[in-house]
Automatic annotation (TrEMBL):
Cofactor descriptive note: Binds 1 potassium ion per subunit.
Binding site for K(+): 235, 254, 256, 259
UniProt xrefs under InterPro entries: G_TrmE (IPR031168), GTP-bd (IPR006073), GTP-bd_TrmE_N (IPR018948), GTPase_MnmE (IPR004520), MnmE_dom2 (IPR027368), MnmE_helical (IPR025867), P-loop_NTPase (IPR027417), Small_GTP-bd (IPR005225)
Protein name, per record: tRNA modification GTPase MnmE
Length: 462
């Protein structure tokens, strides 16, 4: 991948809005030279003489008017020991929008180019400091919704997945070398011995990929959130449950850009799991879906959910609407909550336990607090499926999972070809495919437009 990175980029790296300080960051060869034109050290020291990893105090001067714009601290980090592996300059200024914008515009006038979203991280990738999966983890880190999601994103940014993928790629290279040797010396009787060795390694790779994707569903939930819908008749206690959940941890509300007010995602942090309650236009609370749009429309939401929380009021006998929902929820990932256990009980709880997996029927009273912990524990159990812990999670990104599965398929084809006694070149093609596939995770063999697409998802200044 030949990409010329010869210009110096600049962006505001802190969040938009008012803040204590703002940071404007430059990366590229000309960073220090540009700083030199616009920065005046308080004691008149020469900027070009700045040592790597030092800071200086002074002022930013508007070069077109000679006017002093802001008092700042600047830092200089010399390539290659920087985020991008290029020279990096950071300017710490007063955190109002005017100050940071003004400084940005002065840097632009003096030879820097406005960075695209994610371009700093993209350079870190293109310059070989991190691989593509590590770069992807950077955005996951920024967007992490719970401490648990953040931990996993951090580990990926440190190369936890990359190391595994590189090992698999090395194994495939070894297999290809063997295949090549067998092709080069067909008359030697080594072919059969070699084949068995290759078959064994192929199987090993398949098992390792299985191990990696095993926890991918958990990983996806930690990265993207558990799509959840609360259903049940009016007055069973849905709002009360939601409030109970919201009390403990702050929900993160994201307006998806461009679709203002069309879709609002709310995340509740349940013991480290980001539980996402999707709310579409006009329906303020997901829990009210059944109340507002009726059973038919709510079925659509139910079908798309990762988890359905179905609530029943223990103090009222079941009605047709309950039975209809019960039928519809058959075989779906459901936690049934039999609420208001503090009141005289009018439902047959055994009947409900027979209709669902009895381990997933929880009796609660939101008034007394009974059963609330049990609901949370059940959600955690479901996400981690009993045996996986976050330590076992390597794959969180659907892109990575899909690639791994395709690579596994190619390895499988190659192994089958060897077993079937087909000419060894056939297997060679399949193993090469698998190798190239895995390289799309690390970024070694990925198309440029895919890289571009990944980085456009980033925010400006990262
Ligand atoms: P929703 O219509 O399903 O959202 O139900 P709400 O959460 O609005 O609750 C309806 C009523 O039931 C409210 O008056 C709540 O205070 C009450 N409620 C909720 N949970 C319990 C419970 O566990 N026990 C009792 N006795 N009342 C409850
Ligand atoms: Zn309600």
């Amino acid at each position: 991948m030949a990409v010329a990175i010869d210009d110096t980029i600049v962006a505001i790296s802190t969040a938009v809005g008012e803040g204590g300080i703002g940071i404007v960051r430059m990366s590229g060869d000309k960073s220090l030279g540009i700083l030199n034109k616009v920065f005046k050290h308080v004691k008149g020291k020469e900027t070009l003489g700045m040592k790597s990893y030092t800071m200086r105090y002074g002022h930013i001067i508007d070069t077109s008017t000679g006017e002093t714009v802001d008092e700042v601290i600047v830092s200089f980090m010399k390539a290659p020991n920087t985020y991008t592996r290029e020279d990096v300059v950071e300017i710490y200024c007063h955190g109002g929008m005017v100050a940071v914008r003004k400084i940005l515009s002065i840097l632009l006038k003096n030879g820097a180019r406005l960075a695209e979203p994610g371009e700093f991280t993209k350079r870190a990738f293109l310059n070989g400091r991190i691989d593509l999966s590590q770069a992807e983890a950077v955005i996951d880190l920024i967007r992490a919704k719970t401490d648990e999601s953040m931990k996993i994103a951090f580990e990926q940014s440190q190369g936890k997945l990359s190391k595994k993928i590189k090992k698999l790629m090395d194994k495939l290279l070894g297999m290809l070398a063997h295949v090549e040797a067998a092709v080069a010396f067909p008359e030697d009787d080594i072919e059969n011995v070699v084949n068995q060795e290759i078959i064994d390694t192929g199987r090993e790779i398949q098992r390792e990929i299985d191990g990696l994707v095993e926890s991918a569903d958990t990983g996806k939930i930690l990265r993207e959130g558990l799509n959840t819908i609360i259903v049940g008749k009016p007055n069973v206690g849905k709002s009360s449950l939601l409030n109970e959940f919201l009390q403990e941890k702050r929900a993160i509300v994201t307006d998806i850009p461009g679709t203002t007010r069309d879709v609002i995602e709310e995340y509740i942090n349940i013991k480290g799991i980001p539980v996402k309650l999707v709310d579409t236009a006009g329906i303020r609370h997901t829990e009210d879906i059944v109340e507002r749009i009726g059973v038919e429309r709510s079925k659509e939401y139910i079908d798309r959910a990762d988890l359905i929380i179905f609530m029943i009021d223990a103090s009222r006998p079941l009605e047709n609407e309950d039975f209809e929902i019960i039928e519809y929820l058959k075989g779906k990932k459901t936690i049934v909550i039999v609420n208001k256990m503090d009141l005289p009980i009018k439902v047959d709880i055994d009947f409900i336990k027979d209709k669902f997996n009895r381990d997933f029927v929880i009796t609660t009273s939101i008034n007394t607090g009974e059963g609330i912990e049990a609901i949370k524990d059940k959600i955690v159990d479901m996400v981690f499926e009993g045996n996986v812990s976050s330590r076992d999670v390597y794959v969180t990104n659907v892109r990575h999972r899909d690639i791994l599965l395709k690579a596994k398929e190619s390895v499988g084809k190659g192994v089958e070809a060897l077993i079937a006694g087909l000419p060894i070149d056939f297997a060679s093609i399949d193993f090469r495919d698998a190798y190239l596939k895995l390289g799309e995770i690390t970024g070694d063999t990925v198309e440029e437009d895919i890289i571009d697409r990944i980085f456009t998802d980033f925010c400006i200044g990262k």
